[in-house]
Structures are given as C-alpha cells and as structure tokens.
Design goal:
alpha/beta, Rossmann fold, 4-stranded mixed sheet, two-stranded parallel sheet, 6 helices, about 20% strand
Length: about 170
C-alpha cells in the first residue's frame, strides 16, 4: 500500500516572491515527503530576482520557479454551443480574414483545419491549465511560442513602436 503524500499550497498575489520563497524552504526541508505548490491570483511574468538571490544565499535554488495561475477565469472561453453569436470566425476566415482567439492563457488561430494553439502564457502548464479546461482538443502548433510576458505587466507596452507598421517604416 502506497502512503498518500500531503500537498501544501503557498499563495500570494503575484506568486513571484513570498510564496516562491516559502515553497522553496518547505521543499528543501521536506524533500519528497510533501508535494509543494505555489500560485497567485495575478501571477507576475517571472519570479522576483531578489527572491532568487536571497534563497541562493540560503543554499536553496528557486531560479527555475515560475509564477502560476491560482484561479480560473469566471467563464469558460471555448464551448460546444453558444446562445448568441456576435462574431462568426468561420465566416471571417472564409472571407480571407485572420482570426485569432486571445485569452489570458493562450492564443488560438483559426485555420482550414480548425483551431490551432499557437501561443501560451508564461507560467501556464499546457495540459493542466489550458487543454484540460477546454471542451475539445485543438491542434498544437509545432512551433508553439510563449506569449510576450510584457502583456501581463502594468507597464506601458509601447505598442506604436512594436507594431508591424512601425517596424516596416524603419
């Protein structure tokens, strides 16, 4: 008979400092006797470098720690049926328009064969945080990329400088 391993979840808003440090300490002290998790309600794009340095001084490496989402959005984004259609992606695609569906976790592109997942948010686990929450399984792009972490911060994005039109003008 296999003994169950206890799970401990440390939570803070950005999951970039305190919860990562607490999880690091417990994982260091408990080893494999406890499954240690950490998450945040508004995860940052990366773990705070100062937290990584402080923990390194203690001999604990949390450099690979990635902020994770604690709660799901209130409304499922991809379902089999809807009550009202305000945008018809299939029609737009048939008319030659590019159709992207952008959520807080991923970006999907509508193509001839259906939806293809082309980008995933930093710190999001593809299977657990995206695919397991969808009512269908999209194609996964062979060159699946991480979404630009800058869009998850409060800083100005400099969209005018980053736009394809601005880049072509340079």
């Amino acid at each position: 008979m296999t003994a169950e391993v206890a799970e401990v979840l440390f939570v803070c808003v950005h999951n970039a400092g305190r919860s990562q440090m607490a999880a690091g300490y417990l994982a260091h002290l408990a080893g494999d006797t406890i499954t240690v998790l950490s998450a945040g309600s508004e995860p940052a794009d990366k773990t705070n470098p100062d937290a990584v340095l402080v923990m390194a001084e203690e001999g604990i490496d949390i450099a690979a720690a990635v902020p994770r989402i604690l709660t799901d959005g209130a409304v499922p984004k991809f379902v089999d049926e809807v009550a009202q259609v305000t945008f018809n992606g299939r029609r737009a695609h048939a008319n030659g328009q590019s159709v992207l569906y952008i959520t807080e976790r991923c970006v999907l592109r509508l193509g001839d064969g259906g939806l293809e997942l082309i980008e995933i948010a930093p710190g999001v686990d593809l299977e657990r945080d995206v695919l397991a929450r969808m009512g269908f399984r999209p194609e996964i792009a062979p060159d699946l990329r991480e979404m630009d972490a800058a869009i998850f911060t409060d800083a100005l994005l400099g969209l005018a400088e980053r736009s394809p039109v601005a880049r072509r003008a340079r």
